[in-house]
Amino acid sequence: MFNGFYPRYELAGRIQHTKLDTGIGNIPSARMSRIEDNTSPDFKTVFSGLIENFNTELNAPDNLLKDVMSGSKNVDIHDVMTAMAKSEIAVNVATQITGKVIQAYDRITQIQV
């Protein structure tokens, strides 16, 4: 460029790879390989985990509100409002999941063998 000086850029090292790349470097690819995974938990385990998380999300605003009412300095009213919003979302998701499971059950029972 300037009087025979060419800057040396290590472009390959400066490229930031995303998770959607096809395994370049040590980054695993985020593209789906196989849907069947033998190590995945069964339906009962997944569903019971969702129910346990639902119960904790549902009880969190009450526990935080009790802490605020007792005068704890570690909990702010904004934390209570955030927990209430999270529990509302959890209830909406649980309602949607329940409706989808019931619809799937109805469709399965309508299959004629």
Map the helices and strands.
Blueprint: H1 11-14, H2 43-69, H3 77-110
What report would you give on this structure?
With 113 residues, the chain is an all-alpha fold. It has one domain. The chain is 58% helix and 0% strand. It has three helices and no strands. The protein has helices at residues 11-14, 43-69, 77-110. The longest helix has 34 residues, at 77-110. The model has no long low-confidence stretch (mean pLDDT 77).
DSSP helical segment count: 3
Radius of gyration: 25 Å
Secondary structural class: mainly alpha
The span between the termini is 77 Å
The count of β-strands is 0
List the secondary-structure elements in sequence, H or E.
HHH
| Main sheet record | none
What best-fitting shape do the alpha-carbon axes yield?
flat
Give the count of structural domains. 1
Beta-strand percentage? under 5%
The averaged pLDDT comes out at 77
Q: Which residues form runs of ≥5 with pLDDT under 50?
A: none
Task: Tell me roughly what share of residues is in helical segments.
Answer: 55-70%
